[in-house]
Amino acid sequence: MLRNIAARLQQGHRTVPFPEPAPTLPDRFRGAPIMDRAKCPAGCRNCIEACPTGAITANTLDLGRCLFCTDCVEACPTGAISHSNDYRLATRRRDDLILPTFQLARALDEKTRQLFGRSLKLRQVSAGGCNGCEADVNVLNTLVFDLGRFGIQFVASPRHADGLLVTGPVSANMKTALLKTYEATPAPKLVIAVGACAISGGPFLGHPEQHNGINDLLPVDLFVPGCPPHPFTILDGLLRLLGRIETR
Amino acid sequence: MLTAHNTQPVHRNALPALTAAEFRAALDADARVGALLRLSESEWFAALINGRDGTVGFGVCPVISPESDRWLNPFPPHGAENFHRVEGGEVHEVAVGPVHAGIIEPGHFRFQCHGEEVLRLEIALGYQHRGIENALVGGPDKRTLHYMETLAGDTTIGHATAYCQAIEALAGCRVPARAQALRGIALELERLANHTGDLGALAGDVGYLPTMSFCGRLRGDFLNMTALLCGNRFGRGLIRPGGVGFDVDSDRARELLARLDRTYRDTANAVNLLWNTSSVRSRFENTGAVSKQDALALGLVGVAARACGLERDVRHELPTGIYQFAQIPVSTYHTGDVFGRAYVRWMEIQRSVAFIREQLAALPPGPTRATVGPLAPNRAVASLVEAWRGEVCHVALTDERGRFEKYKVVDPSFHNWNGLALALRGQQISDFPLCNKSFNLSYCGYDL
Questions:
Q1: Does A28 contact chain B (CB < 8 Å)?
Q2: Contact check, Cβ <8 Å, B127/A129
Q3: What's the pTM?
Q4: ipTM topping 0.85
């Protein structure tokens, strides 16, 4: 008992304040890519060809496909591409993930927000996820992020849930289980897609063994891009959805 | 298909990769190669030693015949009805998954129970199959490295390193010493994060919340050290063919060392509570025990094998990269139970911290990346890395154009899922979460 108390004192208070003050991320953290197209040499297609998921076109960049890797940065001959340090990336609509018309997530409508705004129970379904997104969703339950203080909780059964948080590209072998879990969740219900895989198939885009994410299978209310998204990106998205963060 | 009937010894020289004939010969020539063939269907496998200056072997591993599909789903696939059933009036069946109660990957567990006692557990996997090995054929291409980083996302460094070693051998590329050291640091950070997280989760599974809470935070602190190196908590972008994607200057090394010292001090404090708490020990000890004999027969690897007293650690047996120069003692325990698997993790945490401190104090100067040329045609290479779960094994066969004709990945989970099924026999079904966490195996690394 005394040892426990001594350990408790040594370990200290570790819960991070959020959303204010803004969290400090590693200096090398890769947020959304910034493309300075003025620097692009005429006819250069290096980044388009280097991108492993085809996220880049001549005018756009799809954060739903982006793995936030460095392939485009390394391929660029003029240093026109860099990554911002901004972790706020979640959107409400699939099209909102496409730069340059990116649109941060807005809150749910008033009625839904009254239902879920102060208490949101989610069932997590991993459908082909690599355990990267799963791990950084799970970490929200640790005392560092302390998800419970925002009234959000992961529950063990879809029957107890207000919505699903889905990771992975939806492998063919998980499709049935995912749809059954959705059916078992009482309406009204939310669906949250976390990670490039769940949004677009990610690195597995186009494989016949998967479904390119959940967008064609379920109505999605929140898209959280990343590979995997930083825990703060997920937390920020959840709180924006609930109208708990409204600032840009 | 490669088979192992050639008895001619092969002298390992500086050849970066071997032909099929040399590959076969290497299998027979070295007793250690045979020792590393930890699967019973030996006709399926050949092994390769990829020479390194004629001294010590580079890596060894099973190769799978292309026509074989048993590697995908040796367990009953999704929807299968052919589970083994135990008959009897008081025998009942418990089915769990694929969607589990926690935030974990999908798999199906089928228990045959008598009261609380588990008579038999069958594990059905395959839900996570994403078709990675099919997609690797014809590579390497722009997606290959990203497949490696997401084969098992919690083992990004382990799998990416195994892949890069294979590529570098096939291309005859020499990785700079500084990059080798940084790869070692990243691999040990990955081990620290996962071992610390596992010890916390084990504490949670026996209802001992202080260590669970502390380790949940500390695991994140280790992940953030990897993010300090490369910007990503799982090490995405750090390991690149020819070296590493990010260098560490002296300020960053100092910062890493300071964080490591702080986090290790708190980890020791949190973990030692486990060993000093009798209620935890009584739940860990004699739970989910696997005998040394069974561990050998099943071909267990990694923490699960070492907890049974087997000295299996490729950092020691067939070291590559920095591990040729910096030895890490093999951590073993003799009980084969949950306590053994937990305690081996704690020993490895201490040794990984010592290793990283040593490496940071003496980072070799020089470049961090070398150019990787085209891959040699018609060659085979095997690459082994001791990742946090156990040995990660990649085998690449190139065709006449120097593209992948076949690329085989063996995650340590492949060997160890059967160990979990065996560990559950005769246990209380309520101990399943505890036993499962003590193995903590990868679903997607198995399903690929």
A1: yes
A2: no
A3: 0.90
A4: yes
